[in-house]
Specification:
Number of domains: 2
Helix content: 25-40%
Mean pLDDT: 87
Radius of gyration: 20 Å
Number of helices: 7
Largest sheet: 7 strands, parallel
Order of helices and strands: EEHEEEEHEHEEHEHEHEH
Low-confidence stretches: none
Distance between the termini: 13 Å
CATH architecture of the largest domain: 3-Layer(aba) Sandwich
CATH class of the largest domain: Alpha Beta
CATH superfamily of the largest domain: SPOUT methyltransferase, trefoil knot domain
Number of strands: 12
Length: 248
């Protein structure tokens, strides 16, 4: 378990953070601290912005609806984003919210929707994706928010894929060998993990993926998993076998 204060309230802000420079909260954040958490003047909150580390900050009421927080001391230095890229076929809203939150909690440094033939929700609200990423980061002590890139079609993704990375994709028709054994060969390269839609990849997409030199298909076992469940399972397998769970 990382060394982190899990008791103090924690908020993400866009403002720069530096000692003594007051940060004005938006109305929703002010309401949360004042009316939900019932915090008063002089109590402390942890602030982070994804650039300047984490700061213990003092709450200073300005009016009934306006609050500022004054950073007092940096608690943790800024960390880099994780190298794992999480690529996913969009799902319907509630399940997509869950999947994004879990991907952030499990160390994804980049999130990108990938449009496939059987995708359920071709339109995706990137602002909502970011809001879920921020919520997960606030709750789990994460300092570096993932990059969020616009949707891309699968064929375009493969055409422009970084040759320095390995693209791991979950294929229900892959041989049921241990995914950890399959992934071992890719341990020295950064990983992009691709999760397909509920209906799976089409046959043409599967052929396209398997013919690409950067791809590694893995099986998640004999059970049929929903896409959001498959995402969590695959993220756990990747991080446990060749990801940052082995760091240090």
């Amino acid at each position: 378990m990382p060394d982190h204060d899990f008791k103090s309230p924690r908020l993400h802000v866009e403002a720069d953070l530096a000692e003594g420079i007051a940060v004005e909260l938006d109305p929703a954040q002010a309401n949360y601290l004042q009316n939900v958490l019932r915090l008063g003047a002089g109590e402390t909150v942890l602030l982070f912005n994804g650039r300047d580390g984490e700061w213990r900050s003092e709450l200073v009421p300005v009016s009934k609806k306006k609050l500022v927080l004054k950073p007092l001391a940096r608690q943790r230095e800024q960390t880099e984003r994780g190298s794992l890229h999480y690529l996913f076929a969009p799902l319907k809203q509630a399940r997509l919210d869950y999947m994004v939150q879990k991907a952030v909690e499990m160390g994804a440094g980049l999130l990108r929707p990938v449009l496939t033939q059987h995708v359920q929700a071709p339109r995706i609200n990137l602002d909502r994706v970011r809001a879920n990423a921020v919520e997960a980061a606030e709750q789990c002590g994460i300092l570096a928010l993932p990059a969020i890139e616009p949707p891309i079609r699968l064929a375009d993704l493969l055409e422009t894929f970084d040759p320095a990375r390995t693209l791991v994709f979950c294929d229900e028709r892959a041989a049921s060998a241990s995914p950890i054994e399959v992934l071992t060969a890719a341990r020295f390269r950064p990983i992009s993990l691709l999760i397909g839609p509920e209906g799976g990849f089409s046959e043409a997409e599967r052929v396209l993926l398997r013919s690409h030199p950067a791809t590694v298909p893995i099986s998640l076992g004999p059970r049929i998993l929903r896409a959001d469940t498959a995402a969590v399972a695959a993220l756990a397998v990747v991080q446990a076998s060749i990801g940052d769970w082995n760091d240090g």
